[in-house]
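Structure request: Hydrogenase transcriptional regulatory protein hupR1, Candidatus Accumulibacter adjunctus.
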Amino acid sequence: MTANPRPRLPTVLVVDDEVRSQEALRRTLDEDFEVFTAANADEAQRIMESEWVQIIVCDQRMPGMSGVEFLRRVRSQWPDTLRIILSGYTDAEDIIAGVNEAGIYQYLLKPWQPEQLLLTLQTAARVHRLQQENQRLSLELRTAEPVLARRVDSKQERARREFALDGLIRSPQSPLNAVCDLVERIAPFDLSVLISGESGTGKEMLARAIHYRSRRAERAFVVEHCGALPDQLLEAELFGYKRGAFTGAYEDRHGRFQQADGGTIFLDEIGDTSPVFQVKLLRVLQEGEFRPLGATRSQSVDVRVVAATHHDLEAEVRAGTFREDLYYRLATVTLRVPPLRERAMDIPLLAGSLLDAGQKLLGKSVAGFSTEALACLAAYPWPGNVRELQNEILRMLALADTPRLGADLLAPRILRTPAVNQREDHLLELIPLAGGLKERMEALEARVLKETLIRHRWNKSRAAGELGLSRVGLRGKLVRYGLERG
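Returned structure:
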């Protein structure tokens, strides 16, 4: 196998015999990953032999070799590659057997959801990075144990600093301050915490901050995304299993709860679990014990539980879709992470921090943002929250050819701020409520003129051409609306 230099973005190989499925996966992933595609196992094998691949996303049903068969081969030849299987096949026992035989990291049912798939792969990339770091540390342990001990200590300190509340980017007026103050007060105590908030608001980061400010900070912080697996797979992941518990269970496996013993377990998207599974989870929280699949005895565990959801669980309890007793076990303390649209005052600071990280990631330096660009970033509602802001800044940085990131680099949806979730009446939101029809239409015309000029970097000839105006006509409108720029 030829060695290639490590790419700056994590690499994903998509193996699927359907071209439309390949393209859908590529569109979902290509902003965050370098994506390779293959139509069958043989083509994927050739890519693996020439490219450095971190994650494989493989369809189960393909002509010739099935997904599990191919991933079993990958496991023997490239054991460090994380393997994810996609399928509409729902027989849990066969799924678990395939997962274990091929060492599959995650199993996703079709039809997959773009946000769920992207979140799963982002987590997988972090896991792969941590695995590589652990391997390097293990190698150093064999050659220089005292040096390694110091490095492990410094790694723990880095984790403390990274997830300290002082490291959460926010302004003195931020609504996030109240959340952080509450975390400061409850983190030292072994109380269950339920964190609610939209996707991309940083719920997992807040959970880590709770862990690293608790008496459990020296022990494990274990994450499980509960919405990504069917019940039996989730049970196997959380509680583990004994050898022979099902076909393909060739050895005992510790579950997430056992891995987190003495530390903290973070159950993300707990609201997506079924009522049947909620009963099994409730027993762990009530009794402090669980029974692995195939075991005859229960095991005790000492774990602090932090859960997160984007659902309104109180409403689901009232509707009868989420167990009331489990809710109150999880929600000893509740935290709500405000979405980014409620934190406009934080965006300049947050954008600066994300830009610093992006420059290190891409190896490209700029002086910062233009005033226009920051104003547009602060005005946009960011339905994808911090994750969307991070992606937009990386995109701007990649496209930049000037010392500062200007507003012309922004995606059109951000330039056309304020956006209103694609509603049919969104034009009304662009027009001020005060004034008559003439004043309102002039305000809309001024907004269109400014957005067009920003996109064309204030090149009046190009802007006039796009708008179907002469340069003289455009200049007259700019003077009229006070949009002339020196």
